[in-house]
Write a structure and sequence with these properties.
Layout lengths: L13 H5 L3 E6 L7 E2 L11 E5 L2 H4 L5
Antiparallel strand pairs: 1-2, 1-3
């Protein structure tokens, strides 16, 4: 996850929508089962996102 996303709501991260990336679920601190994502979810530094979207848009986010 990009550092600029920490502390922001999913609905406020327009980059995701512009790139056709959908956040399906969020695992808090990367522990336990992920919870379904809602637009109001505020991202934490250690959250793990379950996403889908075009491979060419997702690959740069993994670096």
């Amino acid at each position: 996850m990009q550092r600029s996303w920490v502390g922001r709501r999913l609905t406020d991260i327009t980059t995701l929508n512009e790139r056709g990336i959908l956040v399906l679920a969020v695992s808090r601190n990367g522990l336990g089962l992920p919870e379904l994502a809602t637009p109001e979810v505020v991202l934490g530094a250690r959250d793990v996102l379950v996403v889908c979207g075009p491979e060419d848009e997702l690959t740069p986010l993994l670096a």
